[in-house]
Structure formats: C-alpha cells, structure tokens
UniProtKB/TrEMBL annotation:
The PRC barrel domain binds ribosomal protein uS19. Residues 132-197 form the Ribosome maturation factor RimM PRC barrel domain. This is Ribosome maturation factor RimM. It comes from the Bacteria. Binds ribosomal protein uS19. One of its GO terms (cellular component) is cytoplasm. One of its GO terms (molecular function) is ribosome binding. Keywords: Chaperone, Cytoplasm, Ribosome biogenesis, rRNA processing. It is found in: Cytoplasm. Residues 33-118 form the RimM N-terminal domain.
Length: 223
C-alpha cells in the first residue's frame, strides 16, 4: 500500500515509480493520507484531497487519523474516526464520528490526516519508497555524481525527483526509463536522462575583463 502526496499521483503505466510520502508532524514517523477540503451537504460530509492510492482501504469505517490543525482549532489534539466513505460524482467524500452537521464539518476544512507509518506494507510493494527515503540520495549519471535529490513532487501525470545541481534544480521524471535504479542503502539513484535534461542548466556569467584589457580593446577600436 502506497501513500503519496496528491490525488491519483502514482503515474501512468507499468514504469511509474511510487514514492510514498512520509513527513511526520511530530516526533514519530507518520504518513499523510489526505486533506479535508470542503464541506459537502448539511449532514457533516467532507470532500477529501487524497494522498493515497488506496483510499477505499484507508478510509474504512473505524479508521482513525491524527489531525494536523492549528492549535486554536477545537479539534487540536483530537483523533478523527471514519464513519463512512463514498464516492460522489467521482469525488471522495467521508463522514466522521462527531461531525454531524455542516458547521462542524467546516471547522475541519484544511485539516491534514495522518496515520502511523506502515513500513511493512511499503516494503512489501516493489518499487515503492517513502519520500524521506529518497530525499538526500546522490544522483549518479554515467558513474559520476551530478546532484542530490532535494525533494519529491507529485503531479497528476507522474512524480518528479527535484535534483539539486549546484544552485540550480533539475526536474527528473520518476519513471524506470529515466531512473532505472534506486539504491537506498547505497545512498544513490542512477539516472539515464534524455539529452539536454542536465545540459540545459544556465552557464555561469563570464567574469568581466580587467580594466587594462578593456582599455586596450578600446584603443584598438579607435585605431
């Protein structure tokens, strides 16, 4: 089972890599699986932004989440338990215990839902990693280190490794054709990028010529 940041963000096709987002709000490692985005109807239903590719497995009745909300929120420090989960017009909608009307639902808008990291389920899935496992890995091309993974971005079409190269960043599609090897114990990912992906970085500005050279050039021009 894979938790990712962004709805339907596992990429398309068999070659899609699967980062698993894991950014804990507290000391322990947790997975971010969703965000509450909008009250739906008058009976406490809330639309979700999903950060998991298995919502029907995560949002089962009785599933309990840790809430990330401001300290001023009446829900701060309280868990949130699923009462029902369904799809309405292709949108994920959940009902939670203690949320029985629209007013209460609106108190939870923008809250982020977390669960304890299930390392076993992630390790059992081939080609699946948590974001924190990827960040900091060296990026190797043709045997040489060309940069380091700064972060992972999750887009509807595919995931991207954001590679820090000096003061610049390169967006590398996280697919097997371009990232054929991920070696977390070895601290590296191997990339085989298409031509131009790393070569198109802006060049360093040329240093200004010394004043004496500039004057000589001007004299030659006058002659």
């Amino acid at each position: 089972m894979t938790e990712v940041a962004g709805e339907d963000t596992t990429g398309s096709g068999e070659d899609a890599r699967k980062p698993v987002n894991a950014a804990p709000p507290s000391g322990k490692t947790q997975l971010r699986v969703g965000r509450l985005v909008k009250a739906h109807g008058l009976k406490g239903a809330i639309k979700l932004e999903l950060y998991t590719d298995d919502p029907d497995g995560r949002f089962v009745p009785g599933a309990t989440f840790t809430l990330q909300v401001p300290e001023s929120s009446p829900w701060h420090g309280k868990p949130l338990t699923v009462r029902d989960f369904r799809w309405m017009n292709s949108h994920p909608v959940a009902f939670f215990e203690g949320v029985d009307d629209r007013s209460t639902a609106e108190e939870l808008i923008r809250a982020i839902l977390w669960i304890d990291e299930d390392t076993q389920s992630a390790s059992d899935e081939e080609d699946a990693w948590f974001d924190h496992q990827l960040v900091g890995l060296d990026v190797v091309r043709d045997g040489a280190v060309v940069g380091r993974v700064a972060r992972v971005e999750h887009l509807p079409a595919q995931d991207l490794l954001i590679v820090r190269v000096g003061d610049d960043e390169v967006l590398v599609p996280f697919v097997k054709a371009i990232v054929p090897e991920v070696d977390v114990p070895g601290g590296r990912v191997v990339v085989t990028p298409p031509p131009g992906l790393f070569e198109d970085l802006p060049e360093e500005p040329a240093e200004e010529a010394p004043a004496a050279v500039q004057q000589a050039d001007e004299a030659d021009t006058e002659d």
